[in-house]
Amino acid sequence: MSYVNQVNQNSKTATEEEEDLFDYAYEQPGSMPGTLNIEDDADLPEIILIDYNRDRVKRINNLTPEACAEHLDTESVSWLDVKGLGSENILQRLGKVFGLHPLVLEDVVNVPQRPKVEDYPQQLVIITQMVIPKTSGEGFWLEQVSLVVGKNYVLTVQEKPEKDCFRPVRRRIKFKKGNITTMGADYLAYALWDAIIDGFFPVLEIYGEKIEDLEDEVLFNPTNQSLAKVYQIKRELLALRRAIWPQRNALNKLIRDGSSFVDPEILIFLRDCYDHAVQIIDIIETYRELASSLTDIYLSAINNKMNEVMKLLTVISSIFIPLTFIVGIYGMNFNPDKSPWNMPELDWYWGYPFCWLVMIAIAASLIYFFWRRGWFENFSKIPKQK
Description:
- By secondary structure, this protein is of the alpha+beta class.
- Among the domains are: 1-176, 2-Layer Sandwich (Beta Polymerase, domain 2), CATH 3.30.460.20; 314-381, Methane Monooxygenase Hydroxylase, Chain G, domain 1 (Up-down Bundle), CATH 1.20.58.
- Helix content is 49%, strand content 14%.
- It has nine helices and nine strands.
- It has helices spanning 14-19, 88-98, 102-109, 167-174, 185-198, 200-220, 224-257, 264-330, 351-372; strands at residues 2-4, 25-27, 46-52, 57-60, 77-83, 116-119, 124-133, 140-149, 153-158.
- The strands form two sheets. The chain has a seven-stranded mixed beta sheet, sandwiched between helices. Strands 1-2 form a two-stranded antiparallel ribbon.
- Helix 5 packs parallel to helix 8 (264-330) and helix 8 runs antiparallel to helix 9 (351-372).
- It is rod-shaped, with a radius of gyration of 35 Å.
- The chain starts with a strand and ends in a 14-residue tail after the last helix.
């Protein structure tokens, strides 16, 4: 039996939600190959057909698995999009119609799997990871998308029926933009995979702005929450890296080895897709280095703040130490009647004002000395913690 790491949705904390980014599917030792694990809260599958050629485009919603069979051997290109993994019965029927190997169906259903490419006699199977930014602008969702490429069809299986990054591809098909309606199923698979990889760029753009804002915060106003924000960004960037890095390897494998379901002409487009994946990895690595450097900047800012505070305390202490010394001397109880050397100033008419004048002069002299040394220049720049 296959298991997926799960956390109770009703008791999740913010940290536990981010741990979902690092979930993975694994098999219980001794389990039978091809066993499907369906989550209790998974969405019921919805099958959507987009069938097209250079002359027409047809869309049908809510197809049954058996109704998909007539679209597998047509001259037109059929895109069958399955949204949701909540019914083992429907998925088993779908696997029977498409002739999916039990291990293929297991990889498609038991999510998340590591992105990869597998070439079977009847299909080419591509497992990918799609990133979807959250509407709040904080964080993202990772969703597995499986592509099964046949001679004249592409079967895509998504975890959730909500948003995906395929809208531009649907619009290109609907309005017959570009040459997608004149190409085969392999070009459609490339377009879908390219949309998945390009979906990383908007998310990375958000993280670039976050890192810039966090740099200012860490440098000029570091707080206890700043380090937690840095750590959170590093974790999320690591999750993005784990999602895109295997896809680069899968693209490289497909470009290098080829497939009977991918025309050599399409491999040229896949090279461009590979370049995008490499570019995303470079951006992620750059952001990870910046995030790591933010930790050093935070520690340096905190140490600098502490040094300035210690300098201020040192100045104050240095001013009051001689004053305390004078006050301590005149706080001694020696009787002046017993000896002329015992506190003769106690009998002076101007003794008390003179003592104050001496202490003020000493304090003013020390303040002037510290000012000349430049010790007061940075006190106004000490970050104030909110």
